[in-house]
Structures are given as C-alpha cells and as structure tokens.
C-alpha cells in the first residue's frame, strides 16, 4: 500500500472519527473482551501483549501513523485473545463497528481497505517467519534498523519480552553492537 493510498484510507475512515487521549499504562483493548473500535495512532506508542504461564508476553509494537484493531474481535464480535496497552501518552482517532459497516458499501473504500489488509497480512507473515528463522539478536538488529529512534522509547523489558529473552540477555545483545 502506498503512502498516498494509506492517507486516502485514513481520510475515509476518520472523517467522522472521535479523538481520544490516553495516558501511559492505560489498556485500551482487554483480553477476553469484545473490541468495537478501529483505531489510528496519531501520536504515541502502544504494545500488544498476552499472558503465557503467568507472564506478560509482548508480541507487537504500534507506532505513529498505524491503523489497528483487534481484528478477530472487531470483525467477528468475538472475545479478544490479547490486550493493547499505551506505552507513552497517546492520541488516537477511532470509529466504531457501525461506522465501519457503513463504509463497506463504498467501492473506493473497499479497494483501499483490501490493499491495507493485504499489506498487514504480508507484514505478519514476515514477522512470523522471522520469529521462526531468526535468533533474538537478528530480530533485535532488524527492529533497530527499521526504526532506531523508536527503540529508545520502548522500555527494555518490553523489547526483551518481544524477543523472547530476558532483560539481561537483551543488555548483552545491545552491548555487542
């Protein structure tokens, strides 16, 4: 999806959007609940996480200018299998499911949204393959190369959780660079 197409999609989605300001530590999507909002992250930083053996496991970071929702929960009205938490004070735009349903009748919107979904699927496939093939050190390097300034904003224990390692192991990886 091109930047122009994404901007057009954002315009479609959020012409009538509501704005919400959230403080660091706020959980906006709760595991076990049905999520009814589709978001655009205008400012801030978020993480997706779930519990495994009593520990929080971070599986995703969301940065400025990203669209997101709890896909399965939002579209199928099912319980969400993870949580989304605000890592730093954030500004989000959102629409609810009924507004999204109305947009589905617009052909231009359908085309743009299909391109968006395809780009997200491709991104998640790359993430999955990286988790299977790459050691934590390689995944850290890829994350750092993609957005070095962002890594300075993410607490080390969240990055370690994302990589599936301890904070001590992450410190070793950082010191080797």
TrEMBL record:
It holds the Pfam family cNMP_binding. SUPFAM superfamilies: cAMP-binding domain-like (SSF51206). It comes from Sphingobacterium thalpophilum. It comes from the Bacteria. This is Cyclic nucleotide-binding domain. Transmembrane segments: none annotated. Residues 1-103 form the Cyclic nucleotide-binding domain. InterPro entries: cNMP-bd_dom, cNMP-bd_dom_sf, RmlC-like_jellyroll.
């Amino acid at each position: 999806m091109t930047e122009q197409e994404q901007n057009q999609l954002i315009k479609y989605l959020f012409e009538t959007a509501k704005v919400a300001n959230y403080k660091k530590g706020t959980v906006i999507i709760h595991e076990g609940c049905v999520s009814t909002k589709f978001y655009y992250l205008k400012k801030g930083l978020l993480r997706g996480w779930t519990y495994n053996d009593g520990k929080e496991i971070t599986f995703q970071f969301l940065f400025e200018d990203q669209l997101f929702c709890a896909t399965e929960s939002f579209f199928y009205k099912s319980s969400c299998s993870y949580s989304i938490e605000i890592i730093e004070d954030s500004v989000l735009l959102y629409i609810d499911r009924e507004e999204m349903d109305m947009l589905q009748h617009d052909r231009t919107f359908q085309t743009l949204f299909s391109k968006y979904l395809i780009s997200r699927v491709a991104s998640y496939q790359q993430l999955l393959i990286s988790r299977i093939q790459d050691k934590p050190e390689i995944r850290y390097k890829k994350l750092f190369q993609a957005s070095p300034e962002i890594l300075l904003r993410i607490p080390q224990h969240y990055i370690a959780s994302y990589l599936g390692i301890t904070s001590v192991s992450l410190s070793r990886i950082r010191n080797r660079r």
